[in-house]
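Class prep. Sample record?

___
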Amino acid sequence: MGTPAGEERSRRYNIAGFWPTAFFDGFYRSPQVPEKDSFYSIYNDMIGQAGAVKSVLEVSFDSATTTLDSTELRLGVHITPTDSSVDGLQTLMLAAVVFEDSVPYVSVLSGDTVYARYCARCVIGDTWGVPVAFHFGTDYDTVLTTPLGDWNRSRLGVAVLIQDTSNLRVMQSAGKLRF
């Protein structure tokens, strides 16, 4: 289920071995926890710590320009800088990852149909997205588009994120599960 773009991103994160590998904030690798019962508390703590960090950007979708028709997905993205520290950031990329929430495939092991959860279909732009620059006090609006592949339209969603490629940190994100 790998793609050349996915392989390139994997190299950037120094991933080796089995898929998938989870990251928090684009930087911290998920912990390798030997005790299944401790997953919840460890991940809950990581999510709580990430939620306590003050964001310098707010991201939302513009409902008037976010559309899905028979051939194309259009994402209207609205970004508001909330801190003057964004003025000096030069290595930001806006990435929109289009996914299906579940994709059926025939398992060789079981000989039956199983479902892969949250299957990425494309990153709008290129592997890393599109370069962006922000200035405090000035909102940023853009529309990202991609042609529809042979995807199940009723299962499509998108995750939009702004990532600082110099340190791999995700500055802010927003998601839409269904269109």
